[in-house]
Amino acid sequence: GMFPLQDICKAVHILSVFYPDHKECRLVADKLWFGIIDQSKSMTNEDIVAVFTTLPHLTKSRNMILKMLEEKAAESWQQFKTGDVVEILRVLQELKYDRISQGFMRMLSGWLAVNIHTVTEQEMLAIVYSFLQLEYMDTALVTALEKIIKKKGCQIMEFDLICTICSFCLAMRIRSPTILEGVGQYFIEHHQSLTVPQVTAIAGIFGHLDFHPANGFKFWELLELVLDLKFSQFPPVDIINLLVSFIYIEKFPINFTNKLFNPFFLDRLHSQSEDLVAISRQQLKLYDTTMKLECRGYEGPFLPKDTNYRMINTDNRVTRTASKLLDPMADVVGDISRLGKSVVLSSLPLHPLYIVDLMVYPTHAASLLRFGFLTNNSNNVAVLVLTPEHYDRTGEHLVGSQAMRVRQLTIMGFKVMCVNMQMANKLMMHPKKLREYLQKLYTDACNTKK
Fold first, then answer.
1. How confident is the model over 245-292, as pLDDT tens digits?
2. What is the DSSP letter of 102?
3. How far apart are CA 81 and CA 258, in angstroms?
């Protein structure tokens, strides 16, 4: 306790690179923890930030010092400067996220809500990026982002701020009309100045969140112009994902078909890394199939059918829930032999969107047949088990890919029954309520007019 707190923090930073062995650096730096705790009562905000920067260099004492810092910061958070908050968030990204209390994160988003009018665009970019990396979101944060878009909108000069807000909304499934309408307008105003990664971040959000931009005609016209002009500059995986996201909201990019199924583009596709090639091929197959299913005038399919047997990644939570629903659904439909689990649709690519979690067949005999594209499916009920990630953050709207899945099953003639996985799992403890819930969904699905 003989040294000022700022000097102790400097000593920790020096020790963190003093020895060739990184582990030894941390062990020695850790021995200074007592000096920090000893002076915690008289800490200023400047001291709090200085001690925060030492956390990545500590080991055993880190949790104790982090708790102490959270308590001290809670007492004086209103006095923090923007630079302090940016620095704290930067340090938190270097730590394991699960050690940071939700209360402390709420305090930081609360600080932003109060001080938003004093934060510059560059500082805001750093703050939003940090929250994105920490995968943290709350209502105060969404309100703050809505305020920025409402107040500044098209006057924002930092393009990356808009792109990071889009990435944040996409990652956290924030379907905010205020933000999305503002972003659409921003693209219309600034489309000529945006780089390829910026166009990717902005243009993809609408399809993924199942939201039609305001002033849609102008938006899509300009976007098509930009994509046409810069097509060869987009990484193949990005342009395919982007075009598929437009199909989610029934904006069919038919003018780009010749550019996709072109030897030059397919060569570029296969020169990507192995994992990106796999994603690109699966998404290109999805493009080919969905365009054939939904877009008049599409001359495909251009890709051959899958002939080799492949494994497909499925969500274990969905598979488990579907298994648990077999018996209660058998009660609803009257015969377990009319049910099929994880049914792969015929004449369609092996893709998670074309696997029906539970299929209700009209008879046991029908369950032995295959259904899908070009079959009469009108007597079948396709039961989809939807996870929280299949909805936006409010749980009210399906994300784009799932909205398209429901739409396409309906186009193929299936009656569609959507089961909310969280709701179904809650009701597992109350069989009678679960049966009533499923019965209502099943009746509604059967009575849906085409």
1. 999 999 999 999 999 999 999 999 999 999 999 999 999 999 999 999
2. H
3. 54
How far CA 9 is from CA of 29, 47, 64, 176, in Å, comes to 10, 9, 16, 42
Concatenated DSSP letters of 131-182:
HHHTT---HHHHHHHHHHHHHTGGG---HHHHHHHHHHHHHHT---HHHHHH
**What is the Cα–Cα distance from 371 to 324, expressed in whole angstroms?**
23
SS3 396: coil
Interatomic CA distance for residues 162 and 236, integer angstroms = 23
Contact present, 57 and 68 (Cβ < 8 Å): no
- Nearest in space to 345 (alpha carbons), one of 276, 388, 409: 409
Closest listed residue to residue 93, CA positions, set 122, 54, 144, 132 = 132
Closest CA to 246 of 411, 404, 409: 404
For residue 417, what is the enclosing H or E element? strand 415-420
Predicted confidence (pLDDT) at residue 1 exceeds the cutoff of 50: no
Q: What is the DSSP string of 313-349?
A: ---HHHHHHHHHHHHHHHHHHS-GGGEEEEEEPBTS-
In terms of Cβ atoms closer than 10 Å to its own Cβ (0-12, 13-18, 19+), residue 94 is exposed
E strand or H helix at 416: strand 415-420
Tens-place pLDDT, residues 67-97: 888 888 888 888 889 999 999 899 888 886 5
Nearest 5 degrees, angle CA 343-CA 353-CA 302? 105
- Read out DSSP for 334-395? S-GGGEEEEEEPBTS-S-GGGEEEEEE-SSTGGGGS--BTTS--TT-EEEEEE-GGGB-TTS
- Separation of CA 211 from chain center: 15
Answer yes or no: are the C-beta atoms of 354 and 345 closer than 8 Å.
yes
- Coil, helix or strand for 420? strand
Q: Sign of dihedral through CA atoms 132, 137, 140, 143?
A: positive
Distance CA 401, CA 362 (A): 28
